[in-house]
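@channel anyone free to eyeball this complex?
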Amino acid sequence: MKNHSQRVIILGASVAGICLANEMAMAGHQVLLFSQRTLGVAPQALGQSVFRASLSKKDQDQHFLDSVRFAGFLGNHIKIRELCQSSASYLQYLQALGLELKAANSSLGLNGFYEFNEQRAYQLLLQQLRCHQASHRVRVLEHWRPLALANTEQGVAGVVAENAASMEIEAFSAEAVVCAEGFAQSLFFSQSSFQNDGFLLSCLKEGASLQGAEFIAFHPLTASSQVGSSYLSLDVLNQKAGRLFLQKNNGERFYFLEDWYSDWQDLPDFLISRAMAKVQATAKTGESIFLEQGDQQIPVRPGFKHFLGGLATDDAHQTDLSGLYAIGFASNALFGAGCLPSNAFALQMQTGLDLANQLMQKTHWGGDSSLSAKQFLPALKDDQKRRVQDLLELSGPENLSALKRELSELCHFALGPMRDNAVLQKFATRCEALKEKASRLGLHDQSEHANQELARARDLFTALELAPALSMAAEKRDESRGVHYKIGFYEPRDDLFLQDSCITLKQGRYDYQLKNLQHAIVKPKRRQRLEVAG
Amino acid sequence: MKTVLLKIRRQKANESFYWEQFQLQLPERATLETALQVIQERPINLNGESVAPVVWEAQSSFEQSKTMVIVNGAALSIRDVVLDELVQPIVVEPLAGFSVIRDLWVDLRQSEDETKALAEWIVPIGFHEHSLTEQNYKQAKAFAGVPKNQQALDCVRCGACAQNKAASLSLESLLQLDFLCEQNNQPLSAEQTSALIRTTAVFDYDQVQAAEAQCPLSLALWDSVSNHKKRVRRAAFKNLF
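replying in thread with the prediction:
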């Protein structure tokens, strides 16, 4: 139980962040919730419609085994089992908020699964947040980006953040800082994320470590758009946009979903994903998957969205820095379980609610709330202001979008599912060359109001700093596992399966080491590698 | 490749707006988002001048974007607009009814009034036992009735419905309010009644029907407003006697 009201900063207002904020507010603490975007507008974590919740004991065990089997890489079995066992409680909580649940189609073999609309569930959690917001227990800072972590020898003191619209830079102190928003996705995309505004790099510089950074989140349904950048289409997942088929070499179309599932229009996304992976693996050279949309056929290819790694945390979601915590997709602990068996929503709820429980039982959260720590914040704020001024003065010939695209292509090539150590060894050199080009960057927009170009420039510089860490982790993992396929190392290695990569930044250089995993419940077994089509 | 002429309304907060034209070479069936990305990369206007890139509220890059703008007079998502199908020059404006942050980026944040009005109906429920008081635990149990219209929760606050309105509470919030009233299924308090009078009085049915036509998710706004007006009438009638 709490002894006195303390202040917690939560970075990220998706499911994990909102669950944590609601619980901390209920317990009487002050919450500062940062959201990079407008709250409630197209939340990012949503899109999956089936919750693999199991209400009976037998189903829970099956759920756990499925999670372990279908996730290519797992961080912590004990935590995953807890997640599976707690699923029913989350469902009851969501039901208490007013969510309608529907048992999933048992003809598809989905016993113990429940279907619900994640958008609706999110809105219900958001309504709770609004309630706390109205009673001033939670302060929501929309359009704010955290730029740097304030850390002292005694622990985390707060964050320095920037308002994306007014570009005002402010320092916020707190007894705990919780990182609740994704990882370095912008290495692949032009989109900025909390982490890439410099916050993650700042955490690493202060002594936090990065875990499991070599793995990427794989999503088979990336519609390869003919008009520019590829993107993941949720309409495709929901089968609203058209029918998926395999274009065979003899000219025939194989509508695999209709062939394998009679009720194909209501299929949950993870079944579609698995079906696509199966078709992909058995396809002959030259055969590929398309989406039939009227007269058009859009190529659909397995794609990836971002890196799986996150801040290394212990069972209590505590990072290496006292007072800094990570939950949801910002932490590496449960990602494997969350990604594949349609558990992303549960994963986020579980970590958010679990951390709330942990914090409520502690009297000291580890942060440094001393006067000297508060006095340290203005200096950090001034540093960031100077950095903004430096960026605004960039007037070289290099184009920001071109550099970002170059880095993105380099990452796709070297750090995608197919990897080669020879390429990875050259990656760091290419990054250095890009850094050198980036020093001659010029911005078109010198405005100090809602300057998105400046944010994208900051994003590029951070990505260039982080990319070598990811390539280092990828190079060290000499095996083919899950979607990852390494030239010359074609088998999964059980000795490496039990090890998780951990990267720290010391005196400007990345340091790599392996950490043991919690894998006591299910022993890893030899996996059969699927032949890669083509 | 096709040549596309875009006429974009540009503005910084608290400054007057101006129009700027861009002539772009785009692949066939390019979307507005692609066009804006092309401008972002090479922000040269029709007169050949280098200008600041156009700003919009960029949401997730790999999931369904709901960033809405007015294109040739209609509220549309930037990712859904296929430019080939539109009359040129294609006129792009920010959503009306909201304050402009910059260019096509408008402030869709919920106002404090909206938050307060909605919060009147929300029962705070905690997940952990020690975060609940006995009183709100009882309320939570009562609250968990069967909701009548879960569609209210489908609203993604895209802002399309709120065009040309002049109200302190947006239509999408009214929709949620309707859902919360149904959830509670209890007589309205004086504060709740006055909040409803405050919020529904400004909407006439023509306005609601126009807003409904704009909703990309075809949510039934009219029913919600009608329900609120009935609730207000019932409460007023009870107060009279």
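from a first look: Residues 226-232, 529-534 of chain A have pLDDT under 50 and may be disordered.
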